[in-house]
C-alpha cells in the first residue's frame, strides 16, 4: 500500500538536490552516501517527505536530459528506500515521465512537477496508472527565461486559473483528486511584487479543494526584501513565510532547513489551533 499524507497537521518536505548547480546547495551531495546521510538527518529533524531532484530549475538554468537525471537520482532512491522508516514519503522533482517512471518503479510515492504537466504529455497518464501523489506547480515560462520580465494582469488569479486547469486535466486523465497537490510557484516566473501578492493570498490557494504546497526556501525574494544576498542566510525569511502558510491553511512546506522551519511551523500551528 502506498504511503498516505496526514493533512490534519502541517507536513514538511525536505529538499535533497543531487545536482551540481542548484542555487543554494548545488554540489553539496556528490555521492549517494552523502545524499542518504542528509536525508536521514532531515527525517530525524521532522521531515515527512524527502524530495529528490536531479535537475536544477533555478532561474537561468539549462535543461538536463532524462538519462542524466536518472543517473543522478536512481542510486540515491535505491539506497534511501533501504534505510528510511516506512511512513516516510519519497518524492522526485522532475518534469519528465521517463524519469518519473524509473523513480516510481523504485517505490517513489510522489512526483513533484514544476511544469504542472506542461513539459511532458505522458506525465498525467503515468501518474494516474500508478496512483502516486502529484504536485502541480505554476511556472511562467521555462527556467532559463522565466525571470525575463514576467508580467501579469492579476497574478494570484492567473496562478489559480492555471492550477485549476491543470488539476482538472489531471483528474480527467484518471489522477485521484485527493492525491493532487497545488503549488503557486514562488520565484518561478515572478517578480518580488508578484511573490508578495501570492503570499498575501495563500488562503486562495489552500481553499482550491486540493492539498497545497508552499516552496519559499532560501528564495531571492528574501534578499530583495531584507538585503541579504547569501542564500544560506535566508532561513529566517523562509521560516516567516512558513508560519504565514500555516495560518493560511497550507498543507506542505518544501524547505532546505528542516528543524528551523519545523519550529516556526509548530509554533504557528499551536497558535492557530489555540
Q: Would you kindly provide a written description of the structure presented here, covering whatever features stand out?
A:
The chain is α/β, with parallel strands linked by helices and 274 residues long. It has a single domain (11-272), classed as Dihydropteroate synthase-like (TIM Barrel), CATH 3.20.20. It has 10 helices and 8 strands. It has an 8-stranded parallel β-barrel with strand order 1-2-3-4-5-6-7-8, surrounded by 6 helices. Strand 1, helix 1 (32-45) and strand 2 form a beta-alpha-beta unit. Helix 1 packs across helix 2 (66-83), helix 2 (66-83) runs parallel beside helix 3 (97-105) and helix 9 (235-247) packs parallel to helix 10 (258-272).
Number of helices: 10
Major sheet strand order: 1-2-3-4-5-6-7-8
CATH topology: TIM Barrel
Distance separating the two termini: 35 Å
Overall shape: it is: globular
The average pLDDT score comes to 92
For the report, how would you describe the main beta sheet? 8 strands, parallel, barrel
Total strand count, please? 8
The H-and-E topology, N to C, reads as EHEHEHEHEHEHHEHHEH
Low-confidence stretches: none
Rg calculated over all Cα atoms: 17 Å
Architecture per CATH nomenclature, i.e. the level-2 architecture: Alpha-Beta Barrel
> What portion of the residues fall into strands of 2 or more residues?
5-15%
Q: Can you identify the CATH superfamily?
A: Dihydropteroate synthase-like
Q: What CATH first level would be assigned?
A: Alpha Beta
Tell me the number of structural domains: 1
- Into which percent range does the helicity of residues fall? 40-55%
